[in-house]
Each structure stands twice: as C-alpha cells, then as structure tokens.
Amino acid sequence: MWTHCPALHVNVKNGRATGTIVRKDGGEYEIDVQAVISNVGPHRTVDLVGKEQLSPGYIKDVEAIKSVPTIRFYITSNAPLLEGSAMWTFPESRRLF
Questions:
Q1: pLDDT tens across 9-60, in order?
Q2: 3-state secondary structure the chain
Q3: Given the DSSP bridges, would you call strands 27-32 and 16-24 parallel, antiparallel or unpaired?
Q4: What is the distance between the alpha carbons of residues 65 and 42, in angstroms, rounded to a whole number?
Q5: What does the alpha-carbon distance between residue 92 and residue 94 come to, in Å, rounded to a whole number?
Q6: Do 3 and 13 touch, CB atoms closer than 8 A?
Q7: Separation of alpha carbons 92 and 69, rounded Å
C-alpha cells in the first residue's frame, strides 16, 4: 500500500473505473485496480473522473451540493461524556457558543 500519493486521474473504461494515475516520489504511475474508492468529496471526484464519463443527472446532483466549512473534533475520555452515542451536526450554523 502506498501512502501520501495524490491521485491525478481516475481511469474509466466502458463506464467502469479501472484504475488511477498517482504521483509518488516525483513520478506519475498508472495503477490498474478492481475498484476505486474516493475520499475527496463529490466535486473533486468528478474532476478526477471527468464529467464526460458520468451521467448528466449525476453531474447536476453534484453541482447542486453546497460545500460548507466543517470542523471535526476527536475527544477521548476514560469516562462517558454524553449519554448514548451520537454524532451532532449543526447545519448552516453561524455560531455555536
């Protein structure tokens, strides 16, 4: 497994992702794969794949997504901090406290 290798492009053949081109140690490498998993968000994923490879409906849905700033905190404790387990989100909040 290679780490810290940014993807430059996702290769698509017959409507299926078949590989990716990554940068490693100053070089570019093409890697053939059975599956591609993207963690860069929908807008950047469309850029990597290419709009021409995706359906117009999907492109329209992605373009309708409004990006918002997000802050994530990871807190560990030996004692429970909240009752139950949950993820709290505050969409379109200007100020939390």
A1: 999 999 999 999 999 999 999 999 999 999 898 999 999 999 999 999 999 9
A2: CCCCCCEEEEEEECCEEEEEEEEECCEEEEEECCCCCCCCCHHHHHHHHCHHHCCHHHHHHHHCCCCCCCCCCCCCCCCCCCCCCCCCCCCCCCCCC
A3: antiparallel
A4: 9
A5: 6
A6: no
A7: 9
Cα(31)–Cα(22) distance, rounded to whole angstroms?
8
Taking Cα atoms as reference points, which of 44, 36, 42 lies closest to residue 58?
Answer: 42
What is the amino acid identity at position 21?
I
Whether 95 shows a pLDDT value over 70: the answer reads no
Token pair for 60? 């329209």
Q: Per the structure block, which two tokens stand in for 93?
A: 């909040």
